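I have been asked to look over a protein record a colleague put together. Alongside the sequence sits a line of tokens, each denoting a local backbone shape. Please read both lines and tell me whether the tokens look consistent with the sequence. Take the sequence as given and treat only the tokens as open to question. I have pasted the whole thing underneath without changing anything:
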Amino acid sequence: MKYFNASFYYVRYSVLGKILRETFTKFNWRLWVFTLLFVCMYLIGQFIHIIFRLIDEIFYRGYKAIEVKRPVFIISNPRSGTTYLHRLISLDEEQFAYTKFAHTFQMTASFVKLAKLMKKIDEHMGNMMRKSIDALDRKIWGGWEEIHPMGFNKAEEDEQVFAQMIMSAGIFILFPFLQKIPDTNFLDREPDDVRKNVMDFYESCIKRFMYASNGHKTYLAKNVLSTGRFKTLVERFPDAKIIYIARHPYEAVPSFVSMFGGMYRRHSPQMPDNDPAKRAFAQLGIDFFRYSREMKKTLPANQFIELHYEELLSDPLAAVLKIYQHFNWVPSEKYLERLKNEEARNKNYKSNHLYSLEQYGFTKEEIYNELGEIMDEMGFEK
């Protein structure tokens, strides 16, 4: 459904309808309560977002003149180092504008302006609000530290924009129906009108954000689910730069399931790890590997670069500079200093987040049968 037009607001209610039908077809009181709470919060959030967008149309119409030039998209399977790389490049504040987690809920010019104003006021009050938000982050997201460090003030992917449209596979972190509702997996395979509406809304969000942030900078985004939007993104932004991180499928596939299926323990505690609802994320990860190799061939070399996950972790500074050299970006001395400090701060980090293929009902032989040619091409051991 379009509100006035898709660039103002767009939601694919048909997908939400399918989720609700699946939810209430089978009795699960935990999931029912969870779903009702979600719908209430979603509608409230939708109403607030529309208010901010209306304010934009009155006071910040200049966003319409913003041109999104040479945006940068970091993509890969989940848990492949995209967050780390995104936060390293986002330290280059002279060149790039990027969303923080708080921005992605209300990606509008008016909200960004309000957030800046509140930040200035808070600085004069001893950062009381910032400290409260940090405390809230630790309470809400503390359990995600080993999986995906999160916080309202941390650089974050803009997947929330697609979730607001109910056009994100991330929605199924909450609902165990990915295997039954594939509509959100590959935007590139959806009808043309859906693709256009989604991208109209997405581009509008970027323009509003850039207008309030700094219009002359380059938009920097990372999004682990944008593999399925690869073609659509490049069609809308033909001068886009794509950074792809390749992680061994034996690690990336189960990590995908571990991250996206973790919430199911809240409403379906008896669900086994090899349940079809969880295995569907593994299959999506496998499909993403195939599709990324297919899409890579459609881009000229000056628009695409691929890194290995181990390459990024072993020498982050060299990996980032390799990207800068490939795209002819010039790092400032200030950025290099920030980059070295961040690299030193994370030098001894080691994740304690453990998982295995067998845990989710897969074997290495099955994965190799599916992705053997791609693994060989990437130089991954069998």
About this structure: The first strand starts at residue 72 and ends at 75.
